[in-house]
Design a protein that fits this description.
This protein is mainly alpha-helical and about 80 residues long. It has two helices and no strands. It is elongated, with a radius of gyration of 18 Å.
Length: about 80
Amino acid sequence: MSPDLLIESILYAVRLFLLVTIPLLLALTLAGTFSGMLQAITGIRESLINYFVKLIALFSILYFFLPSLIQSLQEIFNNYYL
């Protein structure tokens, strides 16, 4: 394996990883911060609220961004393998 091909493969893997994880991590981080602030304001110390808010955020981000994510992944795979 040549060094150029190895570097290209590593950059491809990092780009693919970031494309998949960044929207999910960003949404869950914002949801956790929002629910934590809401719990601090109201004084409610129930940990299930945090989980439900994150679960709702996860499903909503997957619902809205999964089609564009799949299309982007198809473009990347077609460009890389064809």
